[in-house]
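Hypothesis: this fold can be encoded by more than one sequence.
Test: take the structure tokens below, design a sequence, compare later.
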């Protein structure tokens, strides 16, 4: 499947590296030598060097990575996290976020370059950026600060994530006497 480049997106293929430039910024990625990329008009066409299973896998991977780069420099990516729990919240302090998650201390998260945090209320955090992998990694790191509890559901979760709660401790017959 070729990738159609939207208006304003420029792709340079030089020295085994793809540089994608668009309205939101620039992304670089080192390319595998097994995959040839040709630009015909406003389309990128990916061709594996052989029919081996490994080259087919690299073909799909390279195509997906470059497609994500094109989407990132045009639209960007975002992940939304929800904070659930009494007294659990996030506050913005300059660029960084400060979390109150039931610990005896505050937890600070400084955004890496290219990532921005925004708050919707005190319980919804949006992580935005142009690099899909970095956005997902930062969101996973925030979730890992206090993952959702399996008994009460308290903690940090992705928006729309379904947490299956376990049943609490069951008191058997004869135990309460």
């Amino acid at each position: 499947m070729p990738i159609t480049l939207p208006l304003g997106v420029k792709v340079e293929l030089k020295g085994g590296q793809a540089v994608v430039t668009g309205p939101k910024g620039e992304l670089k990625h080192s390319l595998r030598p097994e995959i040839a990329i040709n630009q015909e008009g406003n389309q990128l066409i990916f061709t594996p060097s052989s029919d081996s299973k490994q080259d087919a896998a690299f073909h799909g991977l390279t195509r997906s990575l470059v497609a994500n780069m094109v989407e990132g420099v045009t639209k960007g990516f975002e992940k939304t996290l929800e904070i659930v729990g009494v007294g659990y919240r996030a506050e913005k302090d300059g660029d960084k976020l400060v979390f109150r998650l039931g610990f005896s201390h505050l937890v600070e998260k400084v955004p890496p370059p290219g990532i921005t945090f925004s708050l919707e209320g005190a319980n919804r955090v949006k992580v935005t950026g142009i690099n899909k992998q970095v956005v997902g990694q930062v969101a996973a790191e925030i979730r890992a600060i206090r993952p959702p509890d399996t008994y009460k559901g308290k903690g940090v979760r992705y928006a729309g994530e379904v947490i299956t709660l376990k049943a609490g401790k069951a008191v058997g017959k004869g135990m309460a006497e």
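DSSP finds two helices and 13 strands in the chain. The mean pLDDT is 89.
Hypothesis status: open.
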